[in-house]
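Lab notebook, design round three. We kept the backbone fixed and only want residue identities now. Task for the bench partner: fill in a sequence for the structure below.
Input C-alpha cells:
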C-alpha cells in the first residue's frame, strides 16, 4: 500500500487537533490524486456555515499541472525574485486554492470568512488523517489582480488562501509548538 492509499484510522478528534502540523517542506514527490482531494472536500464542506450559504469554491492544481502553473505564477514577481519563487512554489506536490464569495453586507461577509476558515481547518485535519501534508498560505500573490486573472477569480470573490499539498515522511513532521493554556486567556462573566 502506498501513501496515496493510506486508510483513515479512527482517532479521537482531540488527538488529531493536537497532532496536526503544517507541513511546509520536505514533501515526497508522490502525486496528490484529485480523487483524494474531492473525498476530503466532500467531508470538509460540513463546516458550520450560516444559512448554509456555502460561500466557497476550490481550484485544484494537480501534481501534473503544477509546473505549468508555477511557470505562469512566477512571471508575476520581479525578475530578481523569480528563481526564488520558482524554488518555493516547486516544493509542494500540488495546490488547492480556496476561493470565497464576498458579500457586501458586513455581517454576512464575516460569517462567510469564518465558515470558510472552518472548512479549511476541517480539510487540514482530514488530510492529516490520510498522511497528506497541508500548509495554509496567505502571501501577497493572494491579493494580486494578475494572480486572480490566472486563477479565474471573478469579481466579488476573494482568495482565502493557497493550500500547499504533499505527502510526507513521519521523520519530517515538525515538533509541536507550545500553546498558552486556555485558563490563562479565559475570563468568566
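Proposed sequence:
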Amino acid at each position: 500500500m502506498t501513501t496515496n492509499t493510506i486508510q483513515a484510522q479512527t482517532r479521537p478528534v482531540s488527538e488529531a487537533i493536537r497532532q496536526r502540523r503544517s507541513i511546509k517542506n520536505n514533501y515526497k514527490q508522490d502525486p496528490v490524486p484529485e480523487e483524494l482531494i474531492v473525498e476530503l472536500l466532500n467531508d470538509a464542506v460540513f463546516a458550520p456555515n450560516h444559512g448554509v450559504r456555502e460561500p466557497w469554491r476550490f481550484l485544484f492544481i494537480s501534481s501534473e499541472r503544477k509546473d505549468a502553473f508555477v511557470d505562469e505564477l512566477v512571471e508575476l514577481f520581479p525578475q530578481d525574485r523569480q528563481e526564488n519563487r520558482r524554488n518555493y512554489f516547486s516544493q509542494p506536490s500540488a495546490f488547492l486554492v480556496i476561493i470565497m464569495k464576498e458579500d457586501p453586507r458586513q455581517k454576512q461577509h464575516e460569517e462567510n470568512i469564518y465558515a470558510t476558515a472552518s472548512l479549511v481547518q476541517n480539510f487540514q485535519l482530514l488530510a492529516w488523517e490520510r498522511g497528506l501534508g497541508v500548509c495554509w498560505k496567505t502571501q501577497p500573490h493572494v491579493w494580486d489582480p494578475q494572480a486572480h486573472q490566472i486563477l479565474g477569480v471573478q469579481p466579488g470573490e476573494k482568495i482565502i488562501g493557497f493550500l500547499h499539498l504533499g505527502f510526507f515522511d513521519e521523520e519530517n513532521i515538525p515538533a509541536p509548538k507550545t500553546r498558552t493554556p486556555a485558563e490563562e486567556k479565559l475570563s468568566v462573566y
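Keep this in mind before ordering anything: The first strand starts at residue 56 and ends at 61.
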